[in-house]
Amino acid sequence: MSNPAASAPASSGFLARAFRNRSFAIGFAVTAIVAAMALVSFFWTPYDVTKLIVADRMQPPSSAHWLGTDHFGRDMLSMIMVGARNSIAVALVAVGIGMGIGVPLGCWAAARGGIVDEVLMRFNDLVFAFPALLSAIMITAVFGPGSVNAIIAIGIFNIPVFARVSRAGALALWPREFILASRAAGKGKALITVEHILPNIANLLLVQGTIQFALGILAEAGLSYVGLGAQPPMPSWGRMLFDAQTRMIVAPYLAIVPGMAIVVTVLGLNLIGDGISDTLDPKLRRRP
User: Fold this and answer.
1) Is residue 151 a contact partner of residue 223, using CB atoms and an 8 Å limit?
2) Which of 10, 163, 240, 287 has a beta carbon 3.0–4.6 Å from 106's, enabling a disulfide?
3) Domain ranges of the chain
4) Which residues are bridge partners to 75 per DSSP?
C-alpha cells in the first residue's frame, strides 16, 4: 500500500528543493567548510598542535600565523582545525547514540501504549532531568574526564529527546487510515512501524537530529570548558575559551577565534535544520 505522507528525504528531488532554500544552502555551505577543515586536520595542519614554541607565544594574527598563537606559542588556526574534528566527532556519535536508542523506544511506546508507554515515558522524564553537564560530572567522578565520557553523557541526554519526538510522531500516525488498512491486512505492529511509521517521521527525526547536533557541539564545548571533555594536549574549542579568559584584555583574539568557530558551526547546523523543515513541510515550503 502506498504511503500518502512525505517520502524519506534521500531523493534527488528533495536535495534540489532543499538547495533552493536559502537557509539550507547557506547552512550547508558553512557546515561543509567546517567539516572539510576537520577532515583535512587528520592529514595536515599548518603547525603541529602538540609542539610548544614559547618564543612565538601570543603573537597577533600575521602572515605566518593567520589567527595568531596562544600562550604556549601554538598556532591558533591549527588548533581550530583539530578542535573542529573533536567537536564534530563527539556531537555526531552522541547524536547517533541518542537516535539509535531513543527512536526505537519512542516507536515501541507508541505502538504498545498502556503500561509500556507510561513506564518508558516516566523513565525518559527521569533521564531528561539530568543535564549533560551533570551526567558528565557523575561519569567522570567514576571513570575520569575525557572525550569518551563526554560522548556518553551527551548521548544519554539525547535519548529522551529522540524518544519523545518519535513517540509523538508515531502516535499521530497510528489512527490514520493507511495504518488501519495495514493492520486489517494482517501486518504486525513491528512491521507497520518499519514500513510506514519510520518513513513518515523521518523528517521530524532529521530536523531534530540537526538541532541535537548543534546542541551537542555546544555541550562538548561546555564540558571541555570545565575540564570534563577533551584533555590536553588535544585541542578543544571549549578548552581554548577557558585558557583565553584570563588573557582577553591583552589578546582578545584568543577568545574571539574559538568563540566564533562555535557560533558559526552551530549557526550553520541550525540553518540546515530550518531549511530541511521548510522543505519537507508543505505548509512551510517556499515555492521556487
Assistant:
1) no
2) 163
3) 12-280
4) 69
Q: What is the pLDDT of residue 137?
A: 77
Kindly report, residue by residue over 68-102, the tens digit of the pLDDT. 999 889 999 999 999 999 999 999 999 999 999 99
CA angle in degrees (0–180, nearest 5) for 75-81-85: 140
> Is 211 in a helix, a strand, or coil?
helix
Distance, CA of 222 to CA of 135 (rounded, Å): 13
pLDDT at 264: 95
Cβ–Cβ under 8 Å, residues 50 and 231: no
Work out the burial of residue 150: count CB atoms within 10 Å of its CB; fewer than 13 is exposed, 13-18 middle, 19 or more buried: buried
Question: Cell 528525504 maps to which residue?
Answer: 9
DSSP letter at 228 equals: S
The structure's pTM equals 0.87
Q: Rounded to an integer, what distance in angstroms lies between the CA atom of residue 33 and that of residue 14? A: 22
CATH superfamily of 12-280: MetI-like (1.10.3720.10)
In 24-166, which ranges are E strands? Answer: none
SS3 at position 133: helix
* Measured distance CA(3)–CA(89) in Å, rounded: 35
Quote the pLDDT of residue 5.
45
* 284: confidence class by pLDDT, cuts 50, 70, 90: low
Q: Is the peptide bond before 282 cis (omega within 30 degrees of 0)?
A: no
Q: Let me know: does 264 contact 256? Beta carbons within 8 Å.
A: no
Q: Which residues pair with 69 in a beta bridge?
A: 75
